[in-house]
Amino acid sequence: MSDLRVFVADDHAILREGVKKLIAEESGMEVVGEAEDGRTACERVCRLRPDVVVMDVSMPLLNGIYATELLSQECPEVKVLALTIHEQVGYLRRLLAAGAKGYVRKRAAPEELIRAIRAIAAGHLYIDPGISGEAMGSLRAGSSAGRARGDSTPREREVLRLIAEGYSNKEMAARLGLSVKTVETHKGRAMKKLGLNSRAEVVRYASQEGWLREN
C-alpha cells in the first residue's frame, strides 16, 4: 500500500515546518508539497493531487475557506483538513460547507492531527473532539442557514468580505484582478441571494460569519 500523500498550507514557516516534520516521521505518510498562501496552495495542489491537504484557515491572498471551496470544485478527490486557532462555530460551519472533510485546532495534540489525516483519507468526517457540545448543537441548528449560503459562489462571498473590510469597488477590482463592472455584478448577486440591503448589513453578516476575525 502506498504512503498517504500530504500537502501542507500555512503562512507561518515555523508551524509549517513542524507539521511537515510530524508527518514525515509518521509511518505510511509523506509530505509532497507546501505553500504559504491560499492561492499558491490551490495551484500546487491541483498540480500535485495529494490525498490530503492540511489547510490553515487564515492565510494571505486567499484564505483557507475560499481555497477549500476552490479545491472542492477544481480537484474534488483531494480531501481538505482545516487546521486553525479559531473555535467559533461559524468557522466550522463555513469550512464544512466549503467542502472540508475535517477540522483540527492548532492547540490539539500532535497525535490528533495524525488521527485526523488518516480518518479523512479513509473517507470519514473528522471534527476535533475538543469542540464543545454547545458548539456542535449550534452547528446542527444552523444547517439550514448553511444551505442558503451555499447558493452564493466563492467569488461572491469574497467580494462581500472585502466590502465588510472597507474596500471600494475600484479597490476590490484591483485586488481581485477583475473589472469594476464584474465586481459590481458579484456584489449585487451576493447581496440579493443573502437578503442584504446595505453595507452595514454586509458588515453585520461578515461579523456573524467570523470573516472579520480571520486575520
Mean pLDDT, all residues: 82
**Which structural class fits the helix and strand makeup?**
alpha/beta
The helix count comes to 11
Tell me, briefly, the overall form. Answer: elongated
Q: Biggest β-sheet: count, sense, barrel?
A: 6 strands, parallel
SSE series: EHEHEHEHEHEHHHHHH
What value does the Rg take, in angstroms? 17 Å
Distance between the amino and carboxyl termini: 40 Å
| Count of beta strands | 6
What is the helix content? 40-55%
Share of β-strand residues: 5-15%
Strand order in the sheet with the most strands: 2-1-3-4-5-6
- Show unreliable segments: 138-148
In words, what does this structure look like?
Strands 2-1-3-4-5-6 form a six-stranded parallel sheet, with helices on both faces. The chain has helices spanning 13-24, 38-48, 64-74, 89-98, 110-121, 133-141, 143-149, 154-164, 169-176, 180-194, 199-209; strands at 4-9, 29-35, 52-56, 79-84, 102-105, 126-127. It has eleven helices and six strands. It has 215 residues and is α/β, with parallel strands linked by helices.
List keywords for this structure.
6 strands; single chain; alpha/beta; 6-stranded parallel β-sheet
